[in-house]
Specification:
nine-stranded mixed beta sheet
Length: 121
């Protein structure tokens, strides 16, 4: 099964001095009420205080799911592909200025551990 969409908003955030990192790919702005969501999003997060493995959660346009452990990530200048242990492949396209793409790449490099395959193409 695949979840494929174009992200209009890409956000990289950290908390607790970098102990928690999060990257979101979303189709709606953060200001929209989550209870009204009917479009997809993906969130990759890593909490280094409790684990060094990144996990992914998503909304497929109908329902939320997540907690899946990431197996492989392929990042290009305009897309990301995520494979994880729940059997759903995620493919997201996006457009980012160079500086924001560099930040995205940096966050993902820090989040994705050695047990996961990470390609930048």
């Amino acid at each position: 099964m695949n979840l494929t969409f174009e992200a209009k908003f890409v956000n990289c955030a950290d908390a607790i001095g970098g102990e928690i990192l999060q990257v979101t790919f979303d189709t709606i702005p953060e200001s929209q009420d989550e209870e009204d969501r009917n479009t997809p999003y993906v969130c990759i997060s890593c909490n280094f205080e409790f684990s060094d493995s990144a996990t992914v959660e998503w909304h497929d346009g109908n329902d939320y799911d997540g907690g899946a452990e990431i197996i492989a990530v392929t990042l290009s200048r305009t897309s990301i592909s995520i494979k994880h242990n729940s059997g759903l492949d995620i493919d997201v396209t996006f457009r980012l200025p160079d500086k924001e793409f560099a930040q995205l790449t940096s966050f993902l490099r820090r989040m994705i551990d050695d047990d996961c395959t990470f390609f930048v193409v």
